[in-house]
Amino acid sequence: MTDRTPDTTPPAPRLTLRAGESGEAVTDTVWAQVGGTETFERIVRTFYRGVREDEILAPMYPEDDWEGAIWRFRSFLEQYWGGPTTYSEQRGHPRLRMRHNPFPINPAAKDRWLHHMHAALDEVALPPMHDAAFRDYVERAALAMVNRFD
């Protein structure tokens, strides 16, 4: 005989990676769950602190536009992880490969980029599930940016 009592367990919350219709953040996103803009600002500033001192990566950035690079990267990551859509509103579709094509990104540059990103993630210490998802994403994205094998 089977128990026919209806299951009253509420469904797990849905996770969506989008913003509301007017561009505001939706609260059930990774972006919101890890602390929103403050957390992404910490990740990106910590990342760029290492990049600025890196002999392979630093020359790829205009010396007078570090704050612009920080804004662009933070805004992109926030949008990707479900925060405000400011990046696309101001810069259009990310087109990551196209935007990075002018820069000589070889496996050594990719490895240095990942070194600084992993160091930033170590310092910020996201919750384990989000940390794993973030690291998986940056590994795949970094590999996709490689455009030279010299």
Overall description:
With 150 residues, this protein is mainly α. The chain has one domain (30-145): Globin-like (Orthogonal Bundle), CATH 1.10.490. It contains seven helices and no strands. α2 (36-51) packs across α3 (66-80) and α2 (36-51) crosses α6. The N and C termini lie far apart (69 Å).
- SSE series: HHHHHHH
Proportion in β-strands: under 5%
Morphology call:
globular
Examine the secondary-structure arrangement and name the CATH architecture.
Orthogonal Bundle
The CATH topology is what? Globin-like
Distance between the termini: 69 Å
Helices, by number, come to 7
Low-confidence stretches: 11-19
Could you tell me the radius of gyration in angstroms? 18 Å
Helix content: 40-55%
| Strand count | 0
Q: What's the rounded overall pLDDT mean?
A: 86
Please give the domain count.
1
The major β-sheet equals:
none
CATH superfamily: Globins
